[in-house]
Amino acid sequence: MKMPGTKDKYKDKDNDNNNISSSTQLFKSLDFLYVPASDIHASVYYYTKVLEGNLLWKIHAFGVWVACIQISATGPFILLADHIKAHDPILIYRVENINKTSKILKSRGWKEEKVLEIPQGPCYVFRDPSDNAIAIYENQRPGVMEKFRGRID
Questions:
Q1: What angle do CA 123, 138, 78 make, to 5 degrees?
Q2: Which of 29, 37, 79, 107 lies 20 to 30 angstroms, CA to CA, from 65?
């Protein structure tokens, strides 16, 4: 329900384009939670020792630390990153084709905030009406999780 006096910038005027018309959805799966970690070592310790997650890899590249934690048998991997702003985790969804999907989303009023890289490829980050960060990515490097498994920089 829309609150009086609020602006619904994402609602299409005729409302026809807001319904999914095809049998496939744009987003394939929620693969990663990109989580701020100002102290990467303390965060890795917390997620592995306190929460009993499995550290799959921890890399330092281009001046940034990123660690991949598997915290459950199913569900998204947690990417701890020291370059993400505090209190601003990013939900990262896999899409079939990042260029096609971003074009469709732009036609619906989506505005790209920034581009960031994860080992699987570029992510296009945008914000929902409540200012939550969401990203889409195409798995352009499908073997990278196995390649990085066990790598601890």
A1: 60
A2: 29
CB 94 within 8 A of CB 27: yes
- Residue 9: per-residue pLDDT: 53
The 10s digit of each residue's pLDDT in 58-97 is 999 989 999 999 999 998 999 999 998 888 899 999 999 9
User: What is the C-alpha separation between 16 and 30, in angstroms, rounded?
Assistant: 26
Q: Cα(17)–Cα(21) distance, rounded to whole angstroms? A: 8
Question: What is the spatial distance between Cα 69 and Cα 57, in angstroms, rounded to a whole number?
Answer: 8
**Tokens, residue 108:** 């619906």
Retrieve residue 100's tokens. Answer: 């096609």
Give the pair of three-digit tokens for residue 151: 């790598």
Q: How many CB atoms lie within 10 A of CB 5?
A: 5
